[in-house]
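Kindly go through one protein, given below as sequence and tokens. The question is how this chain folds according to its tokens.

***
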Amino acid sequence: MREIVTLQLGHSASFVGTHLWNALDIADPNVVDSSVLIRSGFDADSGVATYAPRLVIVDLKGTCILGTLKRINQLYESEQDSQFVAWNGKVDVRKQEPVEKNEYLTYLDQDDQADHDDNHSDNHNVRLNPQQQKPPSNPPTAKQFSKVLDSVVHVWSDFNSMFYHPRSVLELPSYSHNDNVTPFAIFNQGSEIWDSDRDLQEDILDNRIRFFLEECDNPQGIQVLSDVSNGFSGFTASCLESLREDVGKLSITVFGVSDDCDGVINSVQNFNEALALANISKSASVYIPLQSRYQWTAALAVAIDTITLPMRLNKSSTSMGSFMAPLIATGPLGTLASSTPFPFDSNINAIKRMFAKTIGGGNFDDERVDWIHDDTFGDAFDLVFSRFIFNCWCTMYY
């Protein structure tokens, strides 16, 4: 095995991570070895297989435990329920109403319940014939869900499709998400939380990270997604300094996510990112800052998923150390650039005229543009404009 343990530190980092886990959930198993990132288990009593990422998520209070997060699967939920001990004393119950789930999460819950019912039937030797299993008459499509999520996603758990291990999710109680009175906004706030709380250090390093590492046969490294524009910059720097002492020479790849989705980068964010660059690179094997929540983090997730794919292939895979070697020849700092298909809307003629004026030449009478070629295959992009990949003009740097 060549397992990787993942850390997600911060809210925007967890947006990127959620996109990555959702993509891995539907990846082709013939190509991608999901066991590099996913742990599997089996309950002998129920006969239920369990799958969850080797993942530790740290976020602020009010971001992930909102009633919408599929924190743990049904097996773990039943185990947790059994931990409660009945007693005869007075109990004061204070209950918060669960957050209403969007259509996407509701659909996932229905699918999970169907899988649970199938497992229950299998365990009792009651399996329906394929003819008796009627599919939904009008199941929603991915495109329909995309339209829903564009307008209803507020936190990363609003579009999460993964189950998590009980040791994966941790909220920092000191600060709250979207708190404008006492925001978690400065590098020193994060480093102070880590340095002043030995119980927190022990919980994250020993109870969570070490737990996932010790169950690995041959771990190749740790990948970290971290916010670097707010207090998580300092939290991550201090956490990785302690983690490096624990794991020795084990490879640590860090992706620093800069949250400037509102278009404003102020001096505090620049200060945090500069300190993150100076401090995280001391503990990381390679540090790759990313700059560009539901839509813009998806672009970052695509880039990360693509460059780390060689570490997760079933055949001809590479190790994290080999992946980092060419990046760290002159130091532990890398850059990431990606080229993506350029989307066009229905106003295609106006866009054609824009390119004709900007670049010149070309035949715009039909959907074919002969003057744009793919450098790899030497052929013109054909017929559909949205297939074009402009390797130079539309390269996006993060």
User: Anything to note?
Assistant: DSSP finds eleven helices and ten strands in the chain. The CA atoms of residues 6 and 55 lie 5 Å apart. Residues 339-398 form one domain.
